[in-house]
Amino acid sequence: MINIKDNLDKIKAQIQQACQQSGRFIPLGELSPQSPIVSLLAVSKTKPASLIEQAYLAGQHEFGENYLQEAVEKIAELAHLPEIVWHFIGPIQSNKTKQIANNFSWVHSVDREKVALRLNQHLTDDNPHNTPLNICLQVNISNEESKSGISIEQVFSLAKIVDNCDKLTLRGLMAVPEKNAPKASYEKMQQLFTQLKEQYPSVDTLSLGMSSDLDNAVAHGSTMVRVGTAIFGAREYKV
Fold first, then answer.
1. How far apart are CA 87 and CA 109, in angstroms?
2. Which of 34, 102, 137, 181 is the most buried (most CB within 10 A)?
3. What is the pLDDT of residues 33-49, one digit of tens each?
4. What torsion do the CA atoms of 208, 214, 217, 221 make, to the nearest 10 degrees?
5. What is the pLDDT of residues 113-133, one digit of tens each?
6. Is the peptide bond before 132 cis (omega within 30 degrees of 0)?
7. Where does the Alanine racemase N-terminal domain start and stop, copy by copy (predicted)?
């Protein structure tokens, strides 16, 4: 039997410990805009709405989904939860941008101009989730052919395009480093994030780190870690 609340508590304790070890610990009562907080994004792909609701009732309100059709069904089923926030974190097909724009508050995986422009075009003024749409640019920091994402050299040109879209808000960067990625990959993401923040006041999010590399990501400035299995149990793979 999965105990969602216990799992969430363990992950939050791990995040806090990682912050302490990297010198990012914020003593109680001393929070400030200058002291970044590492938030937890619960990756709920392939998991039933019932488990997501358990997590919500345990205090977790932000959830990440990879598969659009599955996610849309769960979003509708859980529409009664007033503070739930949905993040799309999977690869984006341009013909799916309308559904993504009008069902999610965040999109972490923007890696093409066409996708950004279509998200902006399709976001309706009566979007019930959030207007404008919060955008992170996905960076292929390890240059893996099997993964989506832009190169380091493309970050600032795509950032400019997103920033010029009236219904999008550029919030930051996302990356999925290769397994056992060298420290240099994390350092480069941290550097890119710092440079982007200096150029765009809206940028405040570095979506970096999962269960296996959480400590390393937090040590290099991550403000949001994405954790699934450690919360919900082993993934049920789609056939």
1. 10
2. 137
3. 444 489 999 999 999 99
4. 90
5. 999 999 999 988 766 665 789
6. yes
7. 37-235
Helix and strand element counts for the chain (H, E): 9, 8
Neighbours of 89 (CB within 10 A): 23
Give dist(CA 47, CA 29) in Å, integer. Answer: 36
Q: Is 152 exposed, middle or buried (0-12, 13-18, 19+ CB in 10 A)?
A: middle
Token readout for 239 is 């056939």
User: How many residues are present in the chain?
Assistant: 239
**Residue 230's pLDDT band (cuts 50, 70, 90):** very high
Provide, rounded to the nearest whole percent, the portion of the chain with pLDDT above 90.
80
Q: Dig out the tokens for 64 from the structure.
A: 């990440």
Greatest extent of the chain over all pairs of C-alpha atoms, in Å: 48
Domains of the chain: 4-18+36-232 (3.20.20.10)
Task: Please give the single-letter amino acid code of residue 191.
Answer: Q
Nearest-angstrom CA–CA distance, 9 and 104: 26
**Using 50, 70 and 90 to split pLDDT, how confident is the model at 27?**
low
> How far is 76 from 63, CA to CA, in rounded Å?
14
* Tokens matching residue 177: 């480093």
